[in-house]
Amino acid sequence: METLPAVRMESSPLALTERMHPVPPVPPITEMVQIAELLAKSGYFKDVRDASQAFTKMLRGWELGIGYATALSEIDVIQGKPVLSAALMARLIKSSGKYNYQVIAATAEVCELEFYEFGKPIGRTKWTIEQARSAGLVEKQGSNYKAYAEDMLFWRAMSRGAKRFCADVFGGAVYAPGEIEGEERTAIPGARTLRVDETTGEILDA
Length: 206
What we know:
This protein is α+β, with helices and mostly antiparallel strands. It has helices at residues 13-20, 29-42, 51-64, 68-74, 86-94, 129-134, 149-165, 167-170; strands at residues 75-78, 81-84, 99-106, 110-117, 120-128, 195-196, 203-204. β6 and β7 form a beta hairpin. The chain starts with 12 loop residues before the first helix and ends with a strand.
């Protein structure tokens, strides 16, 4: 397999760190609260029941450098822990300027990803339907593995790679559905099929 094109090095490690995690301006809290109230009342985000939940997602999104509406759409908070969508994890990794990934296999039986740092391979992650079944994730009531097996395998493989190889992109641990003990939510509101270019690993619009 060919090595992915190397990412151009910054002038210094500090410069790269600052570009990956630029210090965002302090958010205007009053304005954020007002926006959270409006977004919560809009009815477009079905899993956001009130302004405080919207604010929590917005704050995590601000830390990651993404917009408020994107944060509400792509981040869930389960048992007090943020769960990022596979598409958001993939986007943040590819836009980091340091990391990249490539899809090795993506089927309803297995997903395997290879991760790169500055264009050089640093490791692979794999998640199979048998692993999901052994973990009790396939047969549980409301499991998305029954209808969206390929997407769920990709999500879990991506979160493993994010934790193992790209943790500095996220400023903390990242989780996929089923990784949090006692998780009550098993369905993804507005779940959609993620189409993945198996050559480049790009997330394609569904």
